[in-house]
Amino acid sequence: DVQLQASGGGWVQSGGSLRLSCVVSGVTFDDYCVAWFRQAPGKGPEYVSATNSGGGTSYYADSVKGRFTISRDNAKNTAYLQMDSLKPEDTAVYYCAARDSFFHSFSDREYAYWGQGTLVTVSS
After folding, report:
1. What is the 3-state secondary structure (H, E, C) of 81-102?
2. How far apart are the C-alpha atoms of 61 and 38, rounded to whole Å?
3. Which residues, 6+ apart, have CB-to-CB distance to 37 below 8 Å?
4. Cβ distance 63 to 74 under 8 Å?
5. Could you give phi then psi for residue 7, rounded to 5 degrees?
6. Interatomic CA distance for residues 52 and 104, integer angstroms
7. What is the pLDDT of residues 15-66, one digit of tens each?
């Protein structure tokens, strides 16, 4: 079975930092593009960031560009999202997702596998 286990969420004050982790099992991790999405209360899923299967290219939504950094350690089957300079509008449940492709996609529908989500709360 394919499993994605996200962790690292929590409460932080505006301007603070958090690091999310996503451990992927049941697949050849190197072959999968990994992305992070988030969903705020009452809103639909929002693309945050993605890294291609090789880890050589990263993509970011404009809302997080310059503040968030995605990375992956293929030896550990783990992807990370370093979130700095957090803002109250970053408050959401963050989900990691995996796609059996070298290429990323901005659409949540293109990702077959999802983690359970981890809550990030940023207070002003």
Report:
1. EEECCCCHHHCEEEEEEEECCC
2. 11
3. 45, 46, 47, 48, 94, 95, 97, 108, 111
4. no
5. -155, 170
6. 6
7. 999 999 999 999 999 999 999 999 999 999 999 999 998 778 999 999 999 9
For the segment 9-22, what is each residue's pLDDT rounded down to a tens digit?
A: 999 999 999 999 99
Q: What angle do CA 121, 98, 102 make, to 5 degrees?
A: 130
CA–CA distance, 39 with 98 (Å, rounded to integer): 17
Beta-strand runs (E) in 1-124:
3-7, 10-13, 18-25, 33-39, 46-51, 58-60, 68-73, 78-83, 92-99, 113-114, 118-123
